[in-house]
Write a structure and sequence with these properties.
207 residues, alpha/beta, seven-stranded mixed beta sheet, 7 strands
Length: 207
């Protein structure tokens, strides 16, 4: 089934199962399908997904990996440090009937594993539980691919912060602002839903 719109992509991603054992210290939560579709559709329209090698850093249960496959990525390198999450990702690939041959699952820390790709897609930790994890993911992504699509929590200084992370060799574009709707996943969560505003950035090498 061809993916003809962002809306159709989001609908297909509804089938991606959540974490079986989410880890608080890794800030694990599933990227909402509509948010994942927004990121991936921007990359797809720019020619950065179809027939490309895509790296998904901190792949979790595979939301962005699976979306990239659906949009025609030639190959996806999914990097995930957590064993349970990596197992979840493999189960999602099987349950959705996707071609496992097009996915290289790297079980390791996305901040230190050396992989190469044309395009990086990621929804990294916000750096709430692991201080500076967000910056570390950006730096790893810059070393991994020629273009990076990355989601980060909206804040007063978010754009300035990202420009500092990108300097001196990358330029930054702020593509959109979206709101994540996140269900409670940890014992201390009390609300039925959490709303988090995030910014989608694209980093490209200056040249």
């Amino acid at each position: 089934m061809a993916i003809g719109s962002r809306k159709v992509l989001a609908m297909r991603l509804q089938g991606v199962a959540h974490f079986t054992r989410p880890q608080l210290e890794l800030e694990q939560y599933v990227t909402p399908p509509d948010v994942a579709a927004s990121l991936l559709w921007e990359a797809y329209l720019a020619g950065h997904i179809e027939k490309r090698t895509v790296a998904d850093l901190g792949a979790g249960t595979g939301m962005l990996t699976i979306g990239a496959l659906l949009l025609g990525a030639e190959r996806v390198v999914a990097v995930e440090v957590d064993k349970d999450a990596a197992d979840d990702l493999e189960r999602n690939l099987d349950s959705l009937g996707l071609d496992r041959e097009r996915v290289e699952l790297v079980r390791g820390d996305a901040r230190t594993v050396a992989v190469k790709a044309d395009t990086v897609v990621q929804n990294p930790p916000f750096g709430v539980w692991r201080r500076h994890a967000d910056a570390e993911f950006v730096q790893a992504a810059k070393q991994t691919g020629g273009v990076v699509y990355t989601l980060h929590k909206d804040a007063t200084d978010a754009v300035t912060w990202m420009e500092a992370q990108a300097a001196p060799d990358h330029r930054v574009e702020t593509l959109s602002r979206v709101v994540m709707t996140i269900p409670p996943v940890h014992a201390f969560h009390r609300k039925r839903l959490y709303m988090v505003a995030v910014l989608l950035f694209r980093l490209t090498i200056r040249g």
